[in-house]
Specification:
The complex is a heterotrimer of chains A (58), B (231) and C (244). Chain A has 58 residues and is mostly helical. Helix content of chain A is 76%, strand content 0%. The longest helix of chain A is centred in the middle third of the chain and has 44 residues, at 14-57. Chain A starts with 13 loop residues before the first helix and ends with a helix. Chain B has one domain. The two termini of chain B are 28 Å apart. Classes of the chains: A mainly alpha (58), B mainly alpha (231), C mainly alpha (244). Chain A binds chain C through residues 2, 7, 10-13, 16-17, 19-21, 23-25, 27-28, 30-32, 34-36, 38-43, 45-47, 49-50, 53, and chain C through 33, 37-38, 41-42, 46, 51-53, 55-56, 58-60, 63, 98-99, 102-103, 105-106, 109-110, 113-114, 116-117, 215, 219, 222-223, 225-227, 229-230, 233-234, 238-239, 242-243.
Chain lengths: 58, 231, 244
């Protein structure tokens, strides 16, 4: 029903509508991915700092 | 000598730094001439690359003049604080009884006098070579004078932010050029209108407004930038 | 209110607050963007002039809005940090910059894809696209200035100052680009986005705007957490949080 014929054609503008929706969604996905990676890297840095502090103590 | 004797007023302090900068500037004439020669060479590139047709030259002259002026001013901007920061003079000046803003004002004005004003003085020559009619020259001179002064303030902010960096030159352009785009728009269109025989007052007024605006806030921002990078 | 603001300025408190808010923002963003996309792409009627091409507005307008909102967040956080010496401000500014820049890029790409059917060219020197491009350059300047310093403290403060200078410049650029454009093109460029829009088109747009804002909030929370962790990695509270 939703995929009525012509939905994907976008009245002849499919060439422009779908790439722009796709690009915007890709930017959203990139933001999610890079924010999580950023956080994970920060965790790694903290763990490394903790380990260095421990090895200095011992 | 007691501290009271060496303590000078604000204007006198600005004057002293200004005089020192001008003396230093004229002592190194090659550094003074290089941006001017660069300006000349860049403007020569365009007729060679495009066409020597008078009509075409006249149409593109404002843009060429302004882009070349922008680039050659940027080229000299990097040296604004560099030598003094490298040998520690700048830190001494910052520690003096004068506010850092006053020193920035003196240095920037001196820099504009030896680079910007020289460029403005040379521009009629270049403009004539690009077949700009003589009636447009006063407008072009006024727009370039206002524009290069504004650019000096923007450049002072950029130079202050990048002074401690090893490869600050490219970064300086990256920072200052987007900020300078309104200048380019109004400067080139004022010149363009004067060439076409139209009234350039609107664009000139806007350039003057930008110049006043940056002259009032530029020293503040540039001295804040220096304080961040120096300490 | 002031008390709340002051507590937010302490890194551990902001770290926990961001953790509490992030899932809610993410949840709201998913709902709103999901609804907006379905309603905007499937159910909203085609525009009487632009046909189905107008549907690009559902991703273009929120991206353009976030590009400005991200810059504002970055500049205001930087200003707060510089003026009141509140260090977490730098963390927020550093977190907002790449997010805002990515949405500026998205606004440019979707705008030019919209321009092709409407203007017949991918890139017209339209005032909105041009000032968006200059905004992207401003983002590049701030981001590369921060990275250029070896001392992160200096990079933070320098890029905060540049952010403020750029923020003052944004309206000037916007105005001058409009003026320049009206001079050169004489208003031949078709204006996108009409002020009056029927509700069936407007509701999904509002949902997308709100959804993108929530998305920005969620991403900012995660990034701010990361920034705080790596900035405070020598402090005991971070070590306790991480080893627990």
């Amino acid at each position: 029903m939703i995929l009525r014929s012509g939905f994907w054609a976008m009245g002849g503008y499919a060439r422009f509508v779908w790439p722009s929706i796709g690009f915007a969604l890709a930017i959203l996905a990139w933001n999610v991915w890079s924010a999580r990676r950023h956080h994970a890297r920060a965790l790694v840095r903290v763990r490394r700092a903790i380990q260095m502090a421990r090895s200095e103590e011992s | 000598m007691s501290a009271a004797e060496t303590d000078v007023g604000l204007l006198r302090g600005i004057g002293l730094v200004l005089a020192r900068e001008l003396r230093l500037g004229f002592r190194r004439p090659d550094q003074l001439l290089q941006p001017l020669v660069f300006f000349l060479i860049v403007t020569t590139l365009f007729p060679l690359a495009l066409s020597p047709l008078t009509s075409l030259l006249r149409a593109m002259a404002p843009g060429v003049l302004w882009v070349a002026a922008l680039l050659s001013s940027l080229l000299s901007m990097e040296t604004l604080f560099k030598a003094d920061a490298d040998d520690g003079t700048l830190e001494q000046l910052a520690l003096s009884s004068q506010p850092l803003g006053a020193i920035v004002v003196a240095k920037t004005i001196a820099h504009w006098l030896v680079s910007g004003a020289a460029l403005v003085a040379m521009s009629p020559l270049v403009a004539t070579a690009l077949s700009v009619p003589p009636r447009a020259l006063p407008t072009m001179l006024a727009s370039l004078a206002l524009g290069t002064l504004t650019l000096s303030w923007l450049g002072a902010i950029g130079a202050g932010l990048t002074v401690g960096l090893r490869r600050g030159g490219v970064l300086l352009s990256l920072i200052v050029l987007p900020l300078a785009m309104p200048l380019l728009i109004f400067g080139a269109s004022a010149t363009d209108r004067a060439i076409g025989g139209e009234n350039p007052a609107g664009a000139l007024y806007f350039l003057a407004a930008l110049c006043v605006f940056t002259t009032s806030l530029g020293p503040l921002a540039a001295s804040a930038a220096l304080r961040i990078t120096l300490e | 209110m002031w008390k709340w603001f002051h507590r937010l300025a302490s890194p551990p408190h902001l770290y926990r607050t961001a953790a509490a808010f992030a899932p809610w923002f993410a949840f709201a963003a998913a709902l709103l963007i999901g609804y907006g996309l379905v309603d905007g792409l499937v159910f909203a009627p085609p525009d009487y002039q632009q046909g189905d091409a107008f549907r690009i507005i559902y991703v273009h307008a929120p991206s353009a809005w976030l590009s400005l909102f991200g810059y504002t967040t970055m500049a205001v956080a930087g200003a707060i940090a510089l003026i009141w010496r509140i260090k977490v401000g730098y963390a927020v500014a550093a977190a907002a910059a790449p997010v805002g820049a990515s949405f500026t890029l998205s606004a440019l790409v979707t705008g030019s894809l919209w321009g092709r059917p409407m203007w017949g060219t991918y890139w017209a020197w339209d005032p909105r696209l041009t000032s968006e491009l200059i905004l992207l350059f401003l983002y590049f300047g701030v981001i590369s200035l921060r990275k250029a310093f070896e001392d992160p403290n200096r990079g933070d403060r320098a890029s905060a100052l540049l952010g403020i200078v750029g923020f003052v410049n944004v309206p000037i650029v916007h105005f001058s680009v409009y003026w320049w454009n009206s001079l050169h093109q004489g208003g031949t460029v078709m204006r996108l986005g009409k002020p009056e829009m029927p509700g069936s088109m407007l509701w999904p747009l509002l949902a997308m705007l709100a959804g993108f804002m929530c998305f920005f909030g969620a991403v900012l929370c995660v990034r701010v957490r990361g920034e705080i962790l790596s900035r405070e990695r020598q402090s005991t509270w971070v070590r306790e949080v991480v080893s627990a």
